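Researcher: Go.
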Amino acid sequence: MNETRPRTRIQRKNSQAILDAALEVFSQFGFRGATLDQIAEVAGLSKPNLLYYFPSKEAMHVELLAGLMDTWLDPLRALDPAGEPVAEILGYVRRKLELSRDYPRESRLFANEILQGAPRILDLIEGDLRDLVDEKAAVIEGWMAAGKLAPVDPRHLIFSIWATTQHYADFEVQVRGVLQEPAESTHAGALDFLTRLYTNALTPR
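Model: Structure:
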């Protein structure tokens, strides 16, 4: 699609419909399992019309991932070195859990990309993401050195927060099947459990 001219309202609407459809299909089937025909069907557009806006399914996938990385990193960026350490980390847990609740398809899209070896975002993982984790790990180490947090490996702490929060999106079917309760109850229960878990693990003795 020619991007040199401003897009019309219909073009913007169709482009967003395609990205929404691509997100739905990619989050279910992964990049390799998704097809242009599936995306076109979900978008309610013909395949030639879809290809007018995006030349390939990879183009859609890359655009979705680029936007997702910013969203995914924002909660960690918000960790405030001047804040109260346990409260800051609990705030990070809460924000990550809210992302899993509000953006489950995006979480599964990211998980599928990682499982495939992250071919489209490896540079971001080894660059921006690594730099941000190193920066926040240094903040956490400073809190520990000041006796404000119990000693733990800061990077594995961050990994554990990713695992315990994104589980509720990436394994949503399993969670629903086991708990058999409304999504609001699941979120509230998860937040209560994780708050207790990390408070106990991080509060200095």
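Model: The radius of gyration is 20 Å.
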